[in-house]
Structures are given as structure tokens and as C-alpha cells.
Task: inverse folding
């Protein structure tokens, strides 16, 4: 099975973010980047499917030069090849625009299966995979916890709200958006890191951006709506204040 | 092209309650724009649900009926809605941001060469739609710029489901052209994992731990606090994903929904999928090192600080207070 995994590079979760001067995105100068967390689970699922069924795992990322570090990490974890879609202007493209350049690069590879994360940590759109499937004309299923190859197709476990699940059977080629937690993530081994240096990363240029259907106009800190009473002081003073609240207001002590 | 069309969600004749929040959003947007609001109910045998919403202030209700819409599939939903939206020609199509909508609405929007503005938390004049970035650390204003209809999904809890305006509306039936051969996925029955042994929904006091705890070895730190308080221990999703605590202790949209007297959140950022599971708590106390963490937006009391310093001090103080 030839599996393509779309991985996105996003700011680290603990990053202190500041709005950029133009007010349209965050200031990227001091940020550290990492793989989008659900995409790490998508990669893990792909690697396990390959271990069970054979085949090839190719990771694909669209973004500026810096994203190649995330592709290298994926190669070190066991992906066979990487494709870097070079685009410095992702901010000027909407979901359809980004999905289009990913779909173009993937179509050329004729994959059996495409995996994406269910949602990116930065934009949080939760759509890119579904839009890609539509553009490629292949079936999809979202928020997937488990994938099983059956004769010629797939049986997947979809997560639904409130602790419900559902199995879905589907033909190949197909696209799945992967939820976190389905597998235990592996670490890159020293051997893997060494081997990654010999693996191929192909760079392709993204087609020019077309007019977007939606526009992000302004980014800002959310206005505080709730009056939270902040408890301050030394740790012992803070602890004493909380105990006071628990005794006399919340009444749980 | 004008008007607002709200797509409601049902399964086996039962509403997804978020549908009514989307209906309120649709009515408010329509009022602001001075246009009509209509609603879609879809499935196989949704007549009585359509009648139920005919007591709402709507221009009309479109009941999309087809046997192939009985069990949800993205293919059938996209095909049916593609036809119905083209016929109704609305300027805005509003959805509740449910798992099902996440599964098909982006593909539907793509058919119109448009892009769904997903998980919207507010609407302003323009109209401008507000959504969250970076898991709630920032907000962003979005505007629809294409020629076709604007597709929007509304985050859970943003609008009140009980604020839908009453009125009367006529029901129109719409029979889409669907072919079983178009439907590529075979959906199975819904199921739950083996019975839960921990019922957090009844717990009066909950101490909940998030990724701020850093490592599995640090979990006992919050365990001790929970023990001192006589509380149940709960967690955010990443803690359960990592296997540091069992899945059944997860709070949130894909975990348990809780409403204790006290919810003490330790090292939890407050992503919406977590908040929907604990918003009903009577009192929320949050300990987080980031003063801008969204969890403070729902907290009654907040402590900005390092949990590794605050939690042990608090455990000691609680034990002392209990004697
Ligand atoms: C479809 C879907 C369903 C989901 N379902 C759920 C669900 O049911 N439940 C759920 O919880 N999540 C769910 N999620 C995930 C959710 O979006 C968040 O990713 C998750 O809740 C984040 O968990 P967290 O707050 O523990 O981690 P993070 O967001 O990483 O936050 C960690 C916090 O700890 C703080 N911190 C770090 N170190 C310290 C320290 N030393 N002292 C004090 N504070 C510190 C940081 O400032 C940060 O705010 C779901 C996501 C999706 C897309
Ligand atoms: N620039 C990108 N490069 C590679 N994959 C991406 C990119 N943007 C989005 N994706 C994929 O699409 C998924 C959903 O992203 P989003 O729609 O932004 O929430 C991510 O988890 C990735 O798998």
C-alpha cells in the first residue's frame, strides 16, 4: 500500500504568541516549530500500516524552507520519502488553495491511501483533508482512531461525540483524517536519524495563489468576558487563599 | 441569491441539540441583514421533526427526504445538499459545528468553490465571522469574499438553543436525486467501548490534570491533591492519549461531561473541546503558568503560576485544614 501523509509544521504549543505588526497573523520571528500533533498520529498510523501490509510511506508538507526540518524528523521516524511543496505565501491561500496544492502534489504520486491530521493546532480549520478528498474525487472518513486493511478496502473506526464510535467500510483509494490517541507515538532512533540523511526529499514549487474565497482580516487577543478573581502571593499564601474559598464559598472542605 | 439557510442535524429522529443553537445564529444573522431565514431538516422520515420546527420564526422549512439519507454518509449528504442549496440559492448556509458537519460541510463548500468558515464563536456587522486560532489563544475575523454562498459552522455553546424565536413556517418537501452507486462508504452501527467503571458525572469534586504536568512520573502530584480533597481525578485528552491515565477519566467533547461543585484544572489550557465537558461546573479554579490561557475565561478563581510549586503547597494546606 502506498500511503501519503500530509504533515503540517506549527508553532510549539507552549509558545508565547504575539500578533504581528500588520495585525493579520502572529509574529513568527521568535517561534519554535514542531509537527502538528494529530499529524504525528497520522504518520504513526501510516508506519504501522506499512509494517503490517508492506508498501511505502511518503510525507508531504507545504510551507516555507523551515518546514524541511519537520519532514526530516518524519523521515527519521521511518517515512521512506518526503515531498516539500515550497510556498512562502500560505497565509494568502485559504483552505481550498492549500488543499489544491497538496492535492496536486499527491495526485502525481497515485497513492492508495492519504492520511491527514484531523485539525491543525494553529489554524484549527479541521477541513484540509476533506477538501483534498473532494478535489481528488476519492472517499474520505474523518476523526479516525483505527485503520484496518481489508481485501481491497479499509475498515476504520470513527470517533463520534460523547464516547460513541462507528465502524465504516470504504474502498481504496481513500483519505482519512486521523485523531490523536489511536496509537502510541514512536521516537526517532539514532539509527533512524542517520538513515534519514540518505532518504530523498523532493521539492516542488506551489502553483501561484488564486483569489481566495474567504479572507482572514484581523488577528487579536480575545477580550476577557469573565471576571476571574486572581489569587496572588507566595505559593503558601495562594494555597491558603484557595483553602479559604473551598471552606467558605465552594464549601467542599 | 439571498437569505439565510440553517442545516439542522438529526439522527434516528432525535435532534442534535446544537441544531437549535445554529438556528438562533441563523435567525440573528438574518435579522441583522434584513433577510429571511429558512431551515433544512434531512433524513428518511423527518416529517414530524419538520413539523416541530414549523413553530419557529422561519420563512420555510425544507424537509429533504430520501431512503438513502437514513444512515449518514458524506456522499449522500453532500449530493442532497448540493441540490437543495442550489435550488434555495441562499447567501448564507449555517451549520452547527458537529462531528458530522466536520465530515461533510468542507466538501459541500468545495462544490461551490467556496470555503467553510468553521467553528465560529461570534458574528459582527459586515458580516464578519470570528473564529479561534492556536487553540483559543487568539481570535481572528474572517470575511467571505467569493461570489457563491457563504458557509459557516457555529461552535457549541456560542448561541443559546432556547433563544430560537417562535413563529410559523410552512414545510416544503424536497426529493433529491440520489443513486446508491454514488455512496462509497458503508457506515456501521454506533457503539460504545466496554462499560465505564468511573462515573465522573456524579463526582462533587474533580481535580483535572492537563499536559502542563509534563511527564507521567509527575501524575502522583495531582493524585495526592485529589486524595486530600476527596476528589475524583480527571484529565484532558493528551494525558489519556499518552496512556498516563485511562480514557475513562477524560473530560470533554469526546470524553465525559461533568458538572461538579468544584472543578480544579491543573495545567490545562482550556481548548473548546475540553471546555464543553466541564462548563457546567459550579465553581472552576484554574492553575496555569500562562496568564492568557483560555481556561481563565471560564474560571471563577485563577492562579497564574508553576503547578509544581502551587500544587504541593495546596495539598499541604488542604490536609492541614482538614486536620
Ligand atoms: C474532535 C476533537 C475532540 C477532542 N476531544 C477532547 C476531549 O474530549 N477532551 C480534551 O481535553 N481535549 C479534546 N481535544 C483536544 C483539545 O483540542 C486540546 O488539544 C486539549 O484539550 C489540550 O489539552 P491540555 O490543555 O492538557 O494541553 P495544552 O493545550 O498543551 O495545555 C497545557 C497547559 O499547561 C500549561 N502549563 C505548562 N506547564 C505548566 C506549569 N509548570 N505550571 C502550570 N501550567 C503549566 C500551559 O500554559 C498550557 O496552558 C479534542 C480535539 C478535537 C479536534
Ligand atoms: N501546509 C500544510 N502542509 C501539509 N499538510 C497540511 C498543511 N495544512 C494542513 N495540512 C493537513 O491538513 C490537516 C488539517 O488541517 P486544518 O484544516 O488546517 O485544520 C493537518 O492536520 C495536516 O495533516
Result:
Amino acid at each position: 500500500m502506498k500511503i501519503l501523509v500530509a504533515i503540517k509544521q506549527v508553532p510549539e504549543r507552549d509558545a508565547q504568541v504575539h500578533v504581528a505588526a500588520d495585525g493579520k497573523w502572529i509574529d513568527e520571528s521568535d517561534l519554535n516549530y514542531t509537527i502538528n500533533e494529530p499529524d504525528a498520529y497520522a504518520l504513526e498510523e501510516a508506519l504501522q500500516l506499512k509494517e503490517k501490509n508492506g508498501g511505502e510511506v511518503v510525507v508531504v508538507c507545504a510551507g516555507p524552507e523551515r518546514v524541511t526540518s519537520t519532514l526530516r524528523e518524519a523521515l527519521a521516524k521511518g517515512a521512506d520519502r518526503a515531498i516539500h511543496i515550497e510556498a512562502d505565501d500560505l497565509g494568502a491561500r485559504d483552505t481550498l488553495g492549500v488543499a489544491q496544492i497538496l492535492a496536486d502534489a499527491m495526485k502525481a504520486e497515485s497513492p492508495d491511501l492519504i492520511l491527514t491530521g484531523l485539525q491543525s493546532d494553529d489554524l484549527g480549520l479541521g477541513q484540509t483533508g476533506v477538501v483534498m478528498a473532494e478535489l481528488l474525487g476519492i472517499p474520505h472518513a474523518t476523526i479516525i482512531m483505527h485503520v484496518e486493511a481489508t481485501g481491497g478496502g479499509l475498515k476504520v473506526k470513527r470517533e463520534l461525540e460523547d464516547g460513541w464510535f462507528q465502524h465504516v467500510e470504504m474502498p481504496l483509494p481513500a483519505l482519512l483524517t486521523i485523531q490523536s490517541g489511536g496509537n502510541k507515538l514512536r521516537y526517532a532512533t539514532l539509527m533512524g536519524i542517520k538513515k534519514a540523511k540518505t532518504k530523498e526529499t523532493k521539492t516542488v514549487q506551489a502553483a501561484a495563489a488564486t483569489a481566495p474565497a474567504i479572507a482572514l482580516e484581523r488577528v487579536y487577543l480575545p477580550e476577557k468576558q469573565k471576571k476571574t478573581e486572581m489569587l496572588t502571593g507566595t505559593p503558601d499564601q495562594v494555597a491558603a487563599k484557595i483553602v479559604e474559598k473551598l471552606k467558605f464559598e465552594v464549601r467542599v472542605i | 441569491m439571498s437569505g439565510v439557510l440553517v442545516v439542522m442535524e438529526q439522527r434516528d429522529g432525535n435532534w442534535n441539540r446544537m441544531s437549535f443553537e445554529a438556528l438562533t445564529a441563523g435567525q440573528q444573522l438574518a435579522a441583522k441583514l434584513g433577510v429571511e431565514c429558512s431551515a433544512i431538516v434531512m433524513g428518511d422520515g423527518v416529517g414530524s421533526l419538520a413539523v416541530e420546527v414549523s413553530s419557529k420564526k422561519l420563512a420555510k422549512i425544507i424537509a429533504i427526504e430520501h431512503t438513502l439519507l437514513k444512515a449518514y454518509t458524506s456522499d449522500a449528504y453532500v449530493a442532497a445538499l448540493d441540490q437543495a442549496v442550489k435550488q434555495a440559492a441562499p447567501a448564507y448556509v449555517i451549520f452547527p459545528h458537529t462531528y458530522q458537519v466536520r465530515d461533510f460541510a468542507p466538501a459541500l463548500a468545495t462544490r461551490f468553490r467556496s470555503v467553510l468558515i468553521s467553528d465560529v464563536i461570534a458574528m459582527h456587522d459586515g458580516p464578519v465571522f470570528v473564529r479561534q486560532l492556536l487553540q483559543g489563544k487568539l481570535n481572528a475575523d474572517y470575511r467571505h469574499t467569493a461570489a457563491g454562498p457563504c458557509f459557516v459552522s457555529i461552535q457549541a455553546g456560542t448561541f443559546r438553543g432556547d433563544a430560537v424565536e417562535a413563529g410559523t413556517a410552512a414545510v416544503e418537501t424536497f426529493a433529491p436525486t440520489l443513486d446508491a452507486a454514488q455512496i462509497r462508504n458503508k457506515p456501521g452501527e454506533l457503539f460504545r467501548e466496554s462499560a465505564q467503571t468511573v462515573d465522573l458525572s456524579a463526582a462533587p469534586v474533580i481535580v483535572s490534570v492537563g499536559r502542563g504536568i509534563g511527564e507521567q512520573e509527575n501524575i502522583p502530584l495531582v493524585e495526592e491533591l485529589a486524595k486530600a480533597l476527596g476528589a475524583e481525578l480527571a484529565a484532558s485528552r493528551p494525558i489519556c492519549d499518552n496512556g498516563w491515565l485511562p480514557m475513562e477519566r477524560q473530560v470533554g467533547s469526546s470524553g465525559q461531561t461533568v458538572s461538579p461543585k468544584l472543578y480544579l484544572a491543573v495545567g490545562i489550557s482550556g481548548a473548546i473541546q475540553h471546555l464543553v465537558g466541564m462548563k457546567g461546573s459550579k465553581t472552576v479554579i484554574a492553575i496555569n503558568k500562562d496568564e492568557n490561557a483560555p481556561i481563565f475565561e471560564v474560571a471563577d478563581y485563577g492562579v497564574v503560576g508553576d503547578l509544581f510549586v502551587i500544587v504541593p503547597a495546596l495539598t499541604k494546606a488542604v490536609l492541614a485544614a482538614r486536620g
